[in-house]
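Hi R.,

As promised on Friday, here is the backbone we talked about, encoded as structure tokens. Could you run it through your design pipeline when you get a chance and send me back a sequence?
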């Protein structure tokens, strides 16, 4: 989700190239699925129950089962988000805009993030808004969890926004990321991105409608977005149906799951600062970005919402449970 600063013209060029490569990618994904392969990676440079944790049916793809709920938000109280659990990240990066040519301001207003009827709503709105001396035409919200952890499982049950140009994400960053304005930055921000490590549990909008993406970002010479490790899944009607987006992160591997089904694992043979910046605390982010790599928004766009039923993080209090 973080990616990098690029000029808007370069972003558009790269985005067009990625679309041109989409057909080949879709064929590759289909072949992998048909042959029963559970994981795959590529480089643009080179080529339901609310009260129960979703569990994987493909235990061969995870190496540790995390069973103890250590942190969660069930969003049971209407109104503003729980300030003991979440932080609104609103400070613009240097240069006055968010990364990747994005067009939104992130705000701490209740219009952009609120709890209602048991759901967290992050709403991206088309409206003129001025903050920090900069005027933009869209607002949204970007939440940082006030909980950070090393190893465990994250489950987020969500329904995604609709509309071209919307870019919702459920992801993590290293607590040590050097990012002014982030919740953890002042006391822990010692590593520039991507050396802090990033885990994208779910992104939507940077590829075809209903095609969600999971990715890992770490130092990666010569590749776009500092990643060659990602995989997409096509789902049914993500704007109207809830899905559980998960990551299972152990000392040995990272596995992504949707609705309890594992579909991609990363397990490098050699673990060092460049291949495995995932041995330190990470924290959760929830946001909707607009424009940039996600494409242009329609002229009649008004607003759209990512609705989240729950966020749950599991670890093992008494040691690992190994499958």
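Update: got your reply. Pasting your designed sequence below so it's all in one thread:
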């Amino acid at each position: 989700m973080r990616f990098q600063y690029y000029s808007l013209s370069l972003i558009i060029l790269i985005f067009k190239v990625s679309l041109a490569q989409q057909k080949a990618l879709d064929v590759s994904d289909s072949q992998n699925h048909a042959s029963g392969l559970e994981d795959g990676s590529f480089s643009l440079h080179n080529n339901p129950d609310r009260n129960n944790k979703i569990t994987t049916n493909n235990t061969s793809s995870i190496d540790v089962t995390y069973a103890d709920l250590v942190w969660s938000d069930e969003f049971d109280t209407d109104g503003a988000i729980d300030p003991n659990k979440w932080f609104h990240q609103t400070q613009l990066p240097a240069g006055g805009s968010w990364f990747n040519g994005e067009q939104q301001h992130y705000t701490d207003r209740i219009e952009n993030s609120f709890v209602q009827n048991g759901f967290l709503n992050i709403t991206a709105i088309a409206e003129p808004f001025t903050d920090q001396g900069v005027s933009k035409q869209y607002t949204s919200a970007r939440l940082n969890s006030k909980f950070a952890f090393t190893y465990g499982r994250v489950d987020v049950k969500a329904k995604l926004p609709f509309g071209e140009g919307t870019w919702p994400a459920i992801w993590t960053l290293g607590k040590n990321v050097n990012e002014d304005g982030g919740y953890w930055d002042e006391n822990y921000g010692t590593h520039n991105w991507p050396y802090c490590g990033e885990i994208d549990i779910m992104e939507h909008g940077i590829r075809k409608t209903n095609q969600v993406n999971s990715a890992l970002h770490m130092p990666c010479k010569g590749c776009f977005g500092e990643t060659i490790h990602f995989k997409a899944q096509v789902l049914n009607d993500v704007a109207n149906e809830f899905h559980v987006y998960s990551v299972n992160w152990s000392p040995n591997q990272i596995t992504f799951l949707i609705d309890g089904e594992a579909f991609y694992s990363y397990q490098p043979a050699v673990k060092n600062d460049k291949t495995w910046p995932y041995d330190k605390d990470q924290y959760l982010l929830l946001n909707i970005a607009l424009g940039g790599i996600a494409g242009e928004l329609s002229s009649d766009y008004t607003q759209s919402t990512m609705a989240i039923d729950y966020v749950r993080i599991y670890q093992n209090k008494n040691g690992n449970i190994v499958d």
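One thing I noticed while checking it: The helical segments are 8-20, 22-34, 185-188.

Thanks again,
M.
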